Structures are given as structure tokens and as C-alpha cells.
């Protein structure tokens, strides 16, 4: 279960499933059906990760020990699972000055459980959504929404409101006079193999 964030939650309203109040960074709950029965009425669950900058102890972030400075993220928004059981998380943070949105892969089992790895970054001001793999994991579709929009005033390289005449990016055409546009991107490996191997 992807819980993007909740800045409205008060500290006295925290509970075991929502341990931070407010929770501007979001977290992910892992739900396990009994004996693999996804139609069951009761699941076992636990917090997989509490998102946020792992170097800032005030965030209360929790990650797998192998997560690097590039592996943490915030505002998980939607996800996909590949055939190896790896979780792929797309983010929708409005704080582009902290970190651009993108796609992170996360191990869900073994010694690397809860370890985030950055895979794909969006243009500034965009969110990423809809990650979907082909059945053979050899192509990954992602959608880049509203590039050059959310949070560009906080982005140190731009630091102002974007306009048609002065956009923060010209994704995906990168041509003078073309505004930024949402796009669907298909990601493949150069050798044609499964993504993430």
C-alpha cells in the first residue's frame, strides 16, 4: 500500500499504520495475504519503508541498510512489481528543491529488503506515474506528467515561476518555442534483456 503523504495528520493522531504526524514524506506498507490467498479478509502487514532523506534524522525515515544517498525518495505515489518480485515506485513530490521525482527499484526480500535504488529521473517539476512492465520485463512504460510545473520555484537552477516564454524545461522536444509536454516513455536495455538485471 502506497501512502504518498499526509501533512494534515497531527502528532496525536499517529498510530501503528501511520506513525508520523504530520507525514510529508509518505511511507509504504507491505501486506502479505495468508497462504497466498489474495481474497482473504485479513492480511499480515508491516511498514516496508518510511520515506524521506535518510541523512536527516528529523524525518524519521527508515530504509534498508544498503540504501545510498541516491536511493532514498519521498512521496511514493504508485508502483509496479516485476517478475522477480522487485517493487518499482514512482514518486509525486512537490518539493523539487529537495529531489526530483522519478522511479526507484526496491528489493522486498532478503538482506537488501527495503533498499531503494534510483532508476529514472523526471524533468524538473514533473511527477512520474503508471509504471508498467511487459510480461517479459524487457520494456517498461512510464508517464511523465506536467513537466516544468510543480515546485520549480524551489529548484535551485531555476528558482522562479515558469511561463510559456520562460519554461523550466522544454521536455521532451527541447526545441525553442515548444512548451513542455507530458509524455509516455518506453524504457528498454541496450542488450534487449530484462530491466533490472
What this model shows, in words?
With 197 residues, the chain is mostly beta strands. The protein has one domain (2-187). 0% of the residues lie in helices and 28% in strands. It contains no helices and 10 strands. It has strands at 2-3, 27-32, 44-50, 76-81, 87-91, 102-106, 116-121, 127-133, 140-145, 183-187. The strands form 3 sheets. It has a 4-stranded antiparallel β-sheet, with no helix packed on it. It is globular, with a radius of gyration of 18 Å. The two termini are 25 Å apart. 32% of the residues are buried. The mean pLDDT is 92.
Number of strands: 10
What is the number of helices? 0
What characterizes the major β-sheet? Answer: 4 strands, antiparallel
Rg from Cα: 18 Å
Please give the order of strands in the largest beta sheet.
4-5-6-7
Which structural class matches the secondary elements?
Answer: mainly beta
Straight-line N-to-C gap? 25 Å
Low confidence ranges: none
Number of domains: 1
Quick overview of this protein structure:
A hairpin with a 5-residue loop joins strand 4 and strand 5. The chain has one domain (2-187). The chain has 197 residues and is an all-beta fold.
Task: Give the SSE map.
Blueprint: E1 2-3, E2 27-32, E3 44-50, E4 76-81, E5 87-91, E6 102-106, E7 116-121, E8 127-133, E9 140-145, E10 183-187
Antiparallel strand pairs: 1-2, 2-3, 4-5, 5-6, 6-7, 8-9, 9-10
Amino acid at each position: 500500500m502506497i501512502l504518498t503523504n499526509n501533512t494534515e495528520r497531527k502528532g496525536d493522531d499517529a498510530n501503528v499504520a501511520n506513525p508520523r504526524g504530520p507525514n510529508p514524506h509518505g511511507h509504504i506498507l507491505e501486506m502479505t495475504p495468508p497462504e497466498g490467498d489474495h481474497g482473504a479478509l485479513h492480511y499480515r502487514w508491516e511498514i516496508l519503508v518510511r520515506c524521506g532523506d535518510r541523512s536527516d534524522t528529523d524525518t524519521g525515515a527508515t530504509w534498508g541498510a544498503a540504501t545510498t544517498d541516491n536511493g532514498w525518495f519521498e512521496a511514493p505515489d504508485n508502483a509496479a512489481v516485476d517478475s522477480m518480485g522487485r517493487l518499482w515506485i514512482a514518486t509525486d513530490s512537490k518539493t523539487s528543491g529537495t529531489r526530483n521525482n522519478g522511479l526507484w527499484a526496491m528489493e522486498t526480500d532478503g538482506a537488501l529488503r527495503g533498499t531503494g535504488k534510483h532508476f529514472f529521473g523526471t524533468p524538473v517539476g514533473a511527477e512520474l506515474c503508471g509504471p508498467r512492465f511487459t510480461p517479459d520485463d524487457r520494456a517498461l512504460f512510464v508517464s511523465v506528467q506536467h513537466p516544468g510545473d510543480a515546485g520549480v520555484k524551489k529548484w535551485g537552477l531555476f528558482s522562479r515561476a515558469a511561463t510559456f516564454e520562460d519554461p523550466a524545461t522544454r521536455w521532451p522536444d527541447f526545441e525553442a518555442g515548444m512548451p513542455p509536454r507530458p509524455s509516455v516513455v518506453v524504457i528498454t536495455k541496450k542488450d534487449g534483456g530484462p530491466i533490472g538485471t
